[in-house]
Design a protein that fits this description.
This protein has 267 residues and is mainly alpha-helical. Helix content is 41%, strand content 4%.
């Protein structure tokens, strides 16, 4: 009779172990709708502008955007209208300090030992927040904040994954789960221990268009901007693709009619 209680205890222990192992696996990304999804999807310009504001005022303190130049914010032609006007881009670029070339004396620092800088111009890329990888790790507890230029394309799950990470960071810790010292609980991150502190909070920014700056809204906007950064020519690509498909349909119809005309008397 003692074998039965022992067997039940073993099953309960196994179930508890399995539950703990499942807790270490990330949850599936949240199901979020994006305006840029599908063959006819486009970027929401208002969301892009708000998302750039979130990146500039919040994310850029730790994360670089190395592959994006200021002039990219102006778009790339009829199929890819810009986020900002040329005048706005010049003002945005000028608000950044860019490492300057040596002056006429060959100096790279001023009389206080600070590196020489100049206002940014549209041709410049967004400057990184840290001088190098060692400096980035030293300021982030040994962790290296990833560059965000291609983050949406680089992560499985794309925009949904990134949105889930930034909204899930700092979630309540389930009973029985161990958060490593210096880490934060995020159910959508592999291992559920993430080095990034919760990046967003309500009213992290003040939107000029009056949109309420909830955490979900900020996350939705900045992920829209990062999706654009990963593929700024998406709308142009879709525009060309639809044109090619229309041409192929027309060509197929013409070929079919030609076939019918050539072979109509063959039988």
């Amino acid at each position: 009779m003692k074998a039965l209680p022992l067997a039940l205890a073993g099953l309960l222990l196994a179930g508890t172990t399995a539950f703990a192992e499942d807790m270490s696996e990330p949850m599936p990304p949240k199901d979020v709708h994006w305006s840029f999804e599908g063959p006819f999807g486009t970027y929401d310009r208002a969301a892009l502008q708000r998302g750039f504001q979130v990146y500039k005022e919040v994310c850029s303190a730790c994360h670089s955007l190395n592959l994006v130049a200021f002039h990219d914010l102006g778009g790339g032609g009829e199929g890819s209208p810009g986020i900002f006007s040329d005048a706005q881009i010049k003002a945005i670029a000028a608000g950044y300090k860019i490492a300057a070339e040596p002056n006429d004396k060959g100096e790279t620092t001023d009389d206080k030992g600070q590196p020489l800088t100049r206002p940014g111009i549209p041709a410049d890329h967004f400057p990184a927040p840290f001088a190098n990888e060692n400096a980035a790790r030293a300021n982030n507890g040994g962790a290296l904040p990833p560059d965000l230029s291609l983050i949406v394309k680089a992560r499985e799950g794309g925009a949904r994954y990134v949105y889930s990470i930034v909204t899930g960071d700092g979630s309540p810790v389930p009973h029985g789960f161990k958060v490593i010292d210096g880490k934060y609980y995020d159910p959508y991150f592999p291992g559920r221990n993430i080095s990034m502190p919760p990046p967003l909070r309500a009213d992290s920014v003040t939107y000029s268009d009056g949109t309420p700056a909830t955490v979900d809204q900020e996350a939705h906007d900045v992920v829209t901007f990062l999706a654009w950064a990963s593929e700024p020519k998406m709308e142009e690509r879709k525009h060309i693709g639809l044109g090619v498909m229309a041409f192929m349909v027309l060509l197929s119809g013409l070929l079919f009619l030609s076939y019918r005309r050539v072979w109509k008397d063959a039988h």
